[in-house]
Structures are given as structure tokens and as C-alpha cells.
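User: Study the chain.
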Amino acid sequence: MADAISGITSRMAQLGAYGQGPLGGMGGLRGVDTGAIKVPAGAPETGGGGTSGASFGDTLKQFIGGVSDAQDAAGELRDKFVRGENVELHQVMAASEEASISLEMMVELRNKVTEAYRTLISMQ
């Protein structure tokens, strides 16, 4: 179970890194701010046997906030494009696709957490 969670968090960290580009914190595509979330691959154990770092709940809240931010950014770019402001179509499409992929990833994460919960409940 711990390996599965570590695998999910490291995958989330990898996917968050895809949005980073050479434009100083802006997305890999020109002018798209991804708001990528840095997810720890696993909290290191301390001498007392506990863990340090953000809790799973905090990480989950941060991830959901990032998905919401991506949706908002895509909506803003779409609205600017519709109003005729200086926004390229490829920026709108890239932001929309990124928001869609992050939402799909969040739904899959929910499904995996639900499945893990059901597995734990069925173990007696």
C-alpha cells in the first residue's frame, strides 16, 4: 500500500513538472501559467518513527486547488480570446487541454483512493 501511494505521489510530481518551462515559472507553452504543484515523493521518517512534511490531506487540498486554478486560467484565456484580446488560439487550446488532463487525473486519483478505502474496509 505504501508503495502504491509513493508511486502515485511521484507520478503527480512528474506530471506537475511537465508544465514548467524555460519562461521563468510560466508554462512550457508561451504565457500559460500552470500553477504546478510540487508533491513530495514520500515523507522521510524521523528518529521517532513518525513522518515529517505535509499530511496527505494538505497535499490533497493543494492538488485540488491546483486543478481549480488550471480550470480558472483556461476559462480566463478562453474569455480573453472571445473578447478579441491579444491571446493566441494555441495558448487557449493548450490551457484547456492542461485543465482537462488535470481534472481527469484528479478523478482517477479519487477512484484509486476510493478503491483503496474499500479494500481496507473489506479486510477484517
In short: The longest helix spans residues 89-122. The mean pLDDT is 74.
